[in-house]
Specification:
With about 230 residues, the protein is α/β, with parallel strands linked by helices. About 35% of the residues lie in helices and about 20% in strands. It is built from 7 helices and 11 strands. The strands form 3 sheets. Strands 3-2-1-4-5-11-10 form a 7-stranded mixed sheet, with helices on both faces. Strands 6-9 form a two-stranded antiparallel ribbon. A two-stranded antiparallel sheet has the order 7-8. α1 runs antiparallel to α3, α5 runs parallel beside α6 and α6 packs across α7. The radius of gyration is 18 Å and the shape is globular. The structure holds S-adenosylmethionine. S-adenosylmethionine binds next to β2.
C-alpha cells in the first residue's frame, strides 16, 4: 500500500507533462487499483525516446506502477524497432520484459504461453503502428489484428486501452464565428464515435457488446468476453 502511495507521489510530479493523456492515465491507474495483484500489463509499442512525454512514456509509467503493486506484477512490451527497445531498456527496470518483434506475432505466441501457465492479464495497452490522421485505416487495422491475437486472454475485467483514439464526429461552426466554436451535428448526421488507432477496435467492441469505459485522447473497453 505504501509503495502504491509512492507511485502516486511520483505520478503527481510528471502528471502535467502528460497533457491530453493525463485524465485517462489517471483512470487507468484507478481501474488497476481495483484489481487484485499481481497486475500484468501487456503493451505494444514501447517508450522510444527518453523524457518525450508527447508520446506518453507509457512503459515508464507502467513500470513504476507495477513495481508499486508487488513482486509478481510485471510489464511485457514489444516493439518492432530495435532502436525503440534499446532506449526502453535503458529507461526501465528489469521488471519490464522487452521483446523486439512484430506485435501481432508476439501477442499470438504470448497468448499460447499465458494460456498454458494461466497468466491473467490485467490490461492490454495497444500503441504500435503510428497513425496517419488523414488515413487511419492501416494503423486501425493493425490494432484490430493485435486485439484478435489476444482475444483468448480477454476476461470480463481485462481492460483494453488504445492510445491515439479520440472521438471523431461531424461538426459545424456555430453562428458566433468570433470565438470559433464548433457544434456536433444532430441526426441524420451520425453521432461521434471513436476514431484514430482504435476506430476498428471500437467497431468490433460494439458488435460484441463490450463496454466503452472511457473516451478521451486514449480510449478503453472491457467485457469483450463475458467470463
Ligand atoms: C507511438 S510509439 C509508442 C510510444 C509509447 N507507447 C510511449 O507511450 O512512449 C509506436 C511504436 O510502435 C512501434 N511499431 C510500429 N509497428 C509495429 C509493429 N508492427 N509491431 C510492434 N511495434 C511496432 C514503433 O517502432 C514505435 O516505437
Amino acid at each position: 500500500m505504501s509503495e502504491n502511495l509512492d507511485f502516486y507521489k511520483w505520478f503527481e510530479t510528471i502528471a502535467q507533462k502528460l497533457g491530453d493523456r493525463e485524465i485517462s492515465f489517471r483512470k487507468i491507474f484507478k481501474y488497476l487499483d481495483s484489481l487484485p495483484a499481481p497486475i500484468i500489463i501487456v503493451e505494444t509499442g514501447c517508450l522510444r525516446a527518453k523524457d518525450n512525454f508527447l508520446d506518453g512514456q507509457s512503459t515508464l509509467l507502467f513500470d513504476k506502477y507495477t513495481l508499486s503493486r508487488g513482486e509478481k506484477s510485471k510489464v511485457y512490451t514489444v516493439d518492432i524497432d530495435p532502436k525503440s527497445t534499446k532506449v526502453c531498456k535503458e529507461v526501465t527496470s528489469s521488471n519490464v520484459e522487452i521483446t523486439t518483434e512484430d506485435s501481432v506475432r508476439y501477442l499470438n505466441n504470448l497468448s499460447n504461453i499465458f494460456l498454458k501457465n494461466k497468466t491473467k492479464v490485467s490490461m492490454f495497452y495497444l500503441d504500435s503502428f503510428d497513425i496517419d490522421w488523414r488515413y487511419p485505416y492501416p494503423s486501425a487495422a493493425h490494432h484490430l489484428k493485435e486485439l484478435t491475437s489476444v482475444t483468448r486472454l480477454l476476461h470480463t475485467d481485462t481492460l483494453v486501452v488504445v492510445d491515439d483514439s479520440p472521438a471523431t464526429g461531424n461538426l459545424a461552426q456555430t453562428e458566433n464565428e468570433t470565438n470559433s466554436t464548433w457544434k456536433v451535428l444532430a441526426l441524420p448526421s451520425p453521432p461521434p464515435t471513436i476514431g484514430g488507432k482504435g476506430f476498428l477496435v471500437h467497431e468490433y467492441a460494439s458488435h460484441v457488446k463490450a463496454k466503452l469505459i472511457f473516451s478521451h485522447y486514449q480510449s478503453a473497453w472491457k467485457d469483450f468476453n463475458k467470463v
